[in-house]
Design goal:
The complex is a heterotrimer of chains A (408), B (316) and C (287). Chain A is of the alpha/beta class. Chain A has 2 domains: 198 residues, Rossmann fold (3-Layer(aba) Sandwich); 156 residues, Response regulator (Rossmann fold, 3-Layer(aba) Sandwich), CATH 3.40.50. Chain A is built from 17 helices and 15 strands. A 6-stranded mixed sheet of chain A has the order 2-3-1-4-5-6, with helices on both faces. In chain A, strands 8-7-9-10 form a 4-stranded parallel sheet, with helices on both faces. Chain B is mostly helical and 316 residues long. Chain B has one domain. In chain B, helix 10 crosses helix 11. Chain C has 287 residues and is an all-alpha fold. Chain C has a single domain, classed as ABC transporter involved in vitamin B12 uptake, BtuC (Orthogonal Bundle), CATH 1.10.3470. Helices cover 74% and strands 2% of the residues of chain C. The longest helix of chain C is centred in the N-terminal third of the chain and has 31 residues. Classes of the chains: A alpha/beta (408), B mainly alpha (316), C mainly alpha (287). At the B-C interface, helix 5, helix 10 and helix 12 of B face helix 4, helix 9 and helix 11 of C.
Chain lengths: 408, 316, 287
């Protein structure tokens, strides 16, 4: 008898609950999908390592956000644009995935972006480089997190020209990423007073023998041979360059180098190469702590150190979860607003800010690969030459000309 | 392969078709519509391919060229030219027919394995063009293609609407194929497949019949490709790759060469397999290969072929 | 000018691989009437065998040149006896489809196990370094590859066209029934032929390993080009396919110098052209 009044008191609470749920977590779970290249040319710099990084981020966050569990899915897009967009479409339509992470290649990123925009889901890109992502093709649901081609061109490109490399020849991967990287770097070279003598575009993926392109680079007579490619392509072109004696008279500039590439090549071959990176595991205590946990994680079969793409995935997922917690919802518009509002300050990025065009502007580092004598312990590959502050490292919002940002 | 088609009473045929139509109407409400639309497109592709292989006896190893060319042009029509959906489909189909006339004209000069290799070679040329030409987007593919409006009026946004349109087009094209197969033209094709010198001696212009079959097959494959672009709102190099040419052969073989429904059944089976195996990564290729090998060694008549064989033994 | 010579020489090196592979294909097609779509896969298996011999058993390049083809040749024999044998009485299209399916299975299995990014295979110690030619620096290994390929091709041609064994093989192709009536063991010859063709493909694979990286996809893209080579050369002509392979490698090299993007399709353009003018191929006999 006494319980009834209490029950009546409970009623308003019951009524209030649905109102909260409407702006809460969609179907009670936050699902994050890592869509990456698991077995192909970029699998070492992203792939299973990216999945691991996302897994670690979710676990470190406690496995739940705003009181709801977080689930992780993963899939292999095999570097194919149609596989990527079909998986993303199915994830959004059928599996109720809230955010897709990584994508690693520019083609797949450009293919998934319209799908994410149409379905209003979040896209956290770590790996693709083309500046079109936050430029002409930008949309309100995409975050270009780790690096972009402009940053690479501006870091490595400018440094090499300063170092005396005035004439350039490019060996370029013939797809969105490579072409964009070549263009961005050529602009930097010309602006710094250098000249571009020519370039050759090779089909990618699919090329393993770079002899012919190395010969053309030699024939050009350029001081610097710029490699506008990534992953296994970079490794193979560097090897071919050594095999044909290119390095005797000319210098190589790898525009996008990952620590996994240096590991494949060995310091003997890679020594002296400049690189612009968003993350180096041995930079400070915080980065070392993360890297050691990553390396010793039971899921890390090859015991590799995290590349900037993988570290970027960890940081992006963490930032995403923080944004959900702050917004009390996983609704894409609200979360994107929060992600832009909150600064990023973790082991990955100091002074990181996601702009209205979706580009995450943070400090980058200019590094140089050590010689075998200078390296004292495993994975001691880089010496950090200087820190490039965020404002200098990335193109400004005005320069990117994203229609959304410029309108605002 | 050289068996006469079973004579069904027209009542049974009509009942079977009615059943098929009914199933097709209900399916998208039970299964992910995009998957069903994919099946329809590939079923049309395989059925068009079957006209050439199962009825005319010509193995083309480059049919993906027609699928993809039409897909790209239809996508271009929708995205850049702002065409209405049916005009874009027409553009795709016409381009595939033209390409078919070109390739067919050259390939018909040889027969058997040479014919197959020639079609493969031309398909590689088309692949190269698809990679190089700026409008296709190369490796990135053609993305963000709108589904467009049918006759400029009816929008196809939304999976269910798109489905019924695709279904309508499929039924129309399938009916066209069916009539072609059972027409005098179809009979001559079969005669050519079984004994070409004899057909020649009977006075038929064998080359012209072969070419016509090739063009029709290419055109309808193009229609399938154009529809696929509308469904997925994108077109990529996968649709012009030789693996796609191999896949359509598999569908036709598995379903039943030279049967009317066989290729559609084959398309359904292969797509279900691929969908179910999506989580297995590389194993999809392996299983596809195993199905091919088993199919060639022990299952040459395909599902429908075997079913027809059973019905012959136990007529009901 | 110098750049041109460099590309032509590279083209010749690539051409020698085309020649080796189209030789194997032509032999199998000529004697078995089967278009061996698995040829690229057998080539890949040869390269992987060399890699595995090195990584698991520390067996170097030169022994691998014999062991890998032997292993893959044995595999080829098993395939022929268990599967291909059943298809001879059928339309040749089934042979093509079966080998296509086999290629998918084998490539899929390797892809599952090894991924697609390619594993490096080191150039053997003895052949490191290079020759400083006036127009380019030629790695020693590539020179070795060209010379060895040429020797093997010539040797194969010699065996088939000039020896008794070769004449038995040719008889078995032209008229199996009659040859069998004369006491020739035609089934055995077919088995040996497929085994030999597989071994030849694997040999090319071992030679290719230090140059092209060992990866599961290395064969399938190559085999399409080799088909075009064989069509151009005229299927069934051994000498024709060798010469065409070399020639097309050079043409490819020339294209790389003039218009690099088209280098992957120039072979098909040539094929289209040749078919217009000479439907039977350059050296083919109309069968």
């Amino acid at each position: 008898m006494h319980r009834r009044p209490m029950a009546i008191l409970a009623l308003p609470l019951l009524l209030a609950e649905p109102a909260l749920a409407a702006e809460g977590i969609s179907d009670g779970v936050v699902r994050i999908g890592v869509l990456t290249d698991m077995t192909g040319y970029y699998s070492d710099l992203a792939g299973p390592g990216s999945v691991l990084a996302a897994r670690m981020a979710i676990d470190d966050f406690g496995g739940k956000v705003a009181g709801k569990p977080v689930e992780l899915l993963s899939a292999d897009h095999q570097l194919k644009a149609d596989v990527a967009s079909n998986v993303a479409r199915k994830w959004f339509d059928e599996d109720k995935v809230d955010a897709v992470v990584d994508l690693v290649s520019s083609s797949t990123a450009l293919a998934v972006m319209p799908v994410a925009a149409e379905k209003k889901r979040v896209l956290l890109l770590s790996g693709p480089g083309t500046t079109a992502i936050t430029g002409a093709q930008c949309n309100a649901y995409t975050v270009h997190y780790t690096y972009d081609n402009w940053a690479l061109a501006n870091g490595t490109g400018r440094e090499v020209v300063k170092d005396g490399g005035k004439s350039w020849f490019f060996i370029t991967a013939d797809y969105a990423f490579g072409k964009s990287l070549e263009e961005d770097t050529a602009a930097v070279v010309r602006a710094a007073g250098g000249q571009v003598l020519g370039s050759v575009r090779y089909p990618s993926p699919g090329t393993t023998d770079f002899s012919s392109y190395v010969l053309q680079a030699q024939a050009s007579g350029a001081q610097i041979v710029g490699l506008a490619n990534a992953g296994a392509d970079t490794v193979n072109s560097i090897k071919a360059a050594h095999e044909y004696g290119l390095t005797k008279k000319q210098r190589l500039a790898g525009l996008l180098i990952f620590i996994s590439d240096v590991h494949s090549l060995g310091l003997d071959v890679a020594r002296g190469l400049y690189a612009t990176t968003a993350f180096y595991w041995d930079r400070d205590e915080a980065s070392r702590a993360f890297a050691r946990r990553f390396q010793s994680h039971p899921d890390n079969a090859k015991k590799t150190m995290p590349t900037m793409v993988q570290a970027g995935v960890y940081s992006a997922v963490t930032h995403y979860l923080k944004a959900i917690a702050a917004a009390h919802t996983d609704d894409a518009d609200a979360v994107m607003a929060k992600m832009r509002e909150m600064p990023v300050d973790d082991f990955f990025a100091k002074n990181g800010r996601i702009g209205p065009d979706g580009l995450h502007r943070h400090d980058m580092y200019l590094v140089q690969v050590k010689s075998p004598e200078e390296s004292k312990y495993p994975w001691d590959y880089y010496k950090i030459l200087r820190t490039i502050p965020a404002a200098e490292a990335f193109p400004s919002v005005e320069a990117q000309k994203c229609p959304l940002a410029v309108r605002r | 392969m050289s068996e006469l088609p079973l004579r069904f009473s027209s009542g049974r045929v009509r009942a079977a078709f009615a059943f098929m139509v009914a199933v097709g109407l209900v399916l998208p409400h039970l299964v992910y519509p995009v998957l069903v639309m994919n099946v329809l497109c590939m079923a049309l592709f395989a059925s068009a391919f079957n006209l050439l292989l199962g009825y005319a006896g010509l193995l083309s190893f480059g049919h993906a060229a027609f699928l993809g060319t039409a897909g790209y042009l239809a996508g271009y029509g929708l995205k850049v030219l702002g065409l209405s959906t049916e005009l874009a489909l027409l553009l795709g189909t016409a381009s595939a027919a033209l390409l078919g006339a070109l390739v067919g004209g050259l390939a018909i000069r040889r027969s058997g394995i040479y014919f197959a290799m020639i079609t493969l070679g031309f398909a590689q040329l088309v692949y190269f063009l698809a990679v190089q030409m700026p409008f296709t987007g190369g490796d990135d593919g053609l993305q963000g293609v709108p589904r467009g409006r049918v006759l400029g009026l009816f929008s196809l946004e939304g999976n269910l609407r798109a489905y019924y349109f695709v279904y309508l087009v499929f039924l129309g094209a399938f009916f066209l194929l069916y009539r072609t197969i059972h027409s005098p033209f179809g009979h001559v094709l079969r005669a050519i497949r079984e004994n070409e010198p004899r057909a020649l001696s009977l006075g038929y212009d064998v080359d012209r019949y072969k070419l016509l079959a090739f063009v029709v097959s290419a055109a309808l494959s193009g229609l399938a490709g154009a529809m696929k672009t509308v469904v997925f709102q994108s077109e990529t190099l996968t649709d012009v790759h030789w693996l796609m040419s191999g896949e359509v052969i598999l569908m036709t073989l598995l379903g039943g060469l030279g049967t009317v429904l066989g290729p559609s059944v084959g398309a359904l089976v292969v797509l279900l397999l691929e969908n179910g195996l999506a989580g297995f990564g590389s194993y999809t290729t392996v299983i596809t290969g195993v199905v091919f090998v088993v199919g060639v060694l022990a299952f040459r008549r395909g599902f429908v072929g075997e079913a027809l064989g059973l019905m012959r033994k136990f007529p009901f | 000018m110098q750049a041109l010579f460099g590309q032509l020489l590279l083209g010749l090196i690539n051409g020698s691989f085309y020649a080796l592979l189209s030789l194997g294909l032509a032999i199998i097609f000529g004697l078995l009437d089967i278009v061996n779509f698995a040829h690229g896969t057998l080539y890949m298996m040869g390269a992987f065998a060399a890699y595995l011999l090195l990584s698991e058993f520390q067996v170097g390049f030169f022994p691998a040149l014999f062991l890998a083809p032997a292993a893959v040749g044995l595999f080829g024999i098993v395939v022929e006896r268990t599967m291909l044998r059943r298809l001879y009485r059928l339309d040749s299209l089934y042979g093509l489809l079966l080998t296509f399916g086999l290629a998918l299975i084998i490539e899929g299995l390797f892809h599952h196990r090894y991924g697609n990014s390619g594993t490096p295979y080191p150039v053997p110690e003895l052949l490191r370094g290079g020759l400083a030619l006036p127009f380019m620096y030629l790695p020693l290994y590539r020179a070795f590859a060209v010379v060895t390929a040429a020797l093997v091709c010539f040797g194969a041609w010699l065996v088939i066209e000039r020896t008794r064994l070769g004449s038995y093989l040719r008889a078995g192709t032209e008229n199996p029934r009659l040859s069998q009536a004369f006491g020739l063991n035609v089934p055995l010859m077919r088995t040996l032929t497929y085994g030999f063709g597989s071994a030849l493909a694997a040999f090319a694979g071992v030679m290719a390993a230090p140059i092209y990286q060992v990866s599961p996809a290395m064969g399938s893209n190559l085999v399409i080009v080799v088909f075009a080579v064989v069509v151009i050369g005229g299927m069934g002509s051994i000498a024709g396919s060798i010469l065409t392979g070399l020639g097309l490698g050079v043409v490819e090299g020339l294209t790389r110098y003039l218009y690099p993007e088209a280098s992957s399709v120039v072979v098909f353009l040539v094929m289209a052209g040749v078919l217009l003018l000479r439907p039977a191929g350059l050296f083919g006999r109309t069968r």
